Amino acid sequence: MPNTRLALDDEPWRDLPPQVADLLEAEIEPISAEILESIAREVPEYSRRLEGRFGRGIRRGVGEALAQFVALIRDPDAGRESGREVYLALGRGEQQVGRTLDSLQAAYRIGARVAWRRFADACRRAGVGAEPLSLLAEAVFAYIDELAADSVEGYAQAQAEVEDVRRRRRRELVALLLSDPPADSGDLAAAARAASWEVPTGLAALACPEDALARVARRLPPEALTTVVDGEGCVLLPDPDGPGRTEALAGVAAQVRVVLGPTVAPTAAGESWGLALALLRAESAGAVADELSGDRKRREDPTLLRVDDHLAALLLYESRDLAVRIAARRLAPFADLTPKARARMRETALAHLRHDGNAVAMATEMHVHPQTARYRIARLRELLGDQLDDPDARFELELALRAEPLAAVV
């Protein structure tokens, strides 16, 4: 008889004498019946009759397990690959019907308990000694652990397959939402059902760099649709003004600069995405100032750009060729100034337009003495003349002052 080992071994059945296989083989049929009865009695999820596809799987699994265990004792080098699919399939089946692995693991434990008891009785009747019996117990439970591991693997495979399908359907749904012309509402509803996504009353597109998309997605609720579009990270966020959304967006903004498009109906998602993408690219090109211009509203977070707060900057960026031409025409009188003087006159001109030439208000904005502001106004009139009084010229002048930085990104 080979040396027995008391320490746990990955394949303890290798040290069992082959004669044990002959003793156990005669017990397979009655043990199978007892295991099935015990599982049906003790596992609530399996208390129904073991019939149909499910029942066939369990019956085959029990029979295959016992036969393969005996075969491994007889020939340890035969391996288990030929029978693994049975236990992989049992794990996949549990995932597909929406159960956890708890019931199947309980069934494995019951099977091991019944098999060990019946095997031990048979061996004792045949006079098998204590050491082989101890090794047999180790072998039974190590073998059951392997079967359970196979089912865990099958369960994980099924989960991965479901997740792959879900991701693919959600990518298809995003493509449909962003399609031009907009998708039919019926087609959109069907695609949403296939992707397990509830069509919201409103959504907003969020744009971010592609390499930041995973970090952004982790901060947003699971109903947010995420993918890569046109080389940038794209998120379609349902109900962006709903409960918890402000906190979620703040968490995103703490990680990376992002752009949030306007809230629109789902069939207009492409419009929100187009604006968000355009502003993201404008910001990346340096065409969006850190502070809001015009209405001078304060942003909620310095790394969250909202399209509706930057429409003028976006308009100038999208029409930058024309805007730069306007700037070249209206700001030509500044061309011969030194860079420092030109910057000073640009600041003065913007303040003049905002405050309608009020020297005190201008001085406050520019942080200078009112007399200094008056001096600058006089110099500004020397350079620009009647432009400061003509409404059309003033409009173009303000466009020019806002557009001049775009010359570097045209």
Summarize the model shown.
The chain is α+β, with helices and mostly antiparallel strands and 410 residues long.
Notable traits:
Globin-like, 410 residues, Alpha-Beta Plaits, 60% helix, disordered N terminus, single chain, 16 helices, five-stranded mixed sheet
Sheet-strand content, in percent, reads 5-15%
Strand order of the largest sheet: 2-3-1-4-5
Overall shape = rod-shaped
- In CATH, the architecture of the largest domain is Orthogonal Bundle
Total count of strands: 5
- Summarize model confidence as the mean pLDDT: 86
Gap from first CA to last CA = 87 Å
The number of helical segments is 16
**Structural class category:** alpha+beta
Secondary-structure element series: HHHHHHHEHEEHEHEHHHHHH
Q: Domain count, please report it.
A: 3
Helix content: 55-70%
The rounded Rg comes to: 37 Å
CATH fold type of the largest domain = Globin-like
Q: Write down the CATH class of the largest domain.
A: Mainly Alpha
Largest sheet: 5 strands, mixed
Uncertain runs: 1-8, 290-301
Produce the secondary structure layout.
Blueprint lengths: L18 H7 L2 H15 L9 H23 L9 H13 L5 H24 L4 H48 L7 H10 L8 E7 L3 H7 L5 E5 L2 E7 L6 H9 L4 E3 L8 H16 L19 E3 L4 H8 L1 H11 L8 H17 L3 H8 L3 H15 L6 H13 L7
Helix pairs in contact: 1-3, 2-3, 2-5, 3-4, 4-6, 5-6, 6-7, 8-9, 10-11, 11-12, 12-16, 13-14, 13-15, 14-15
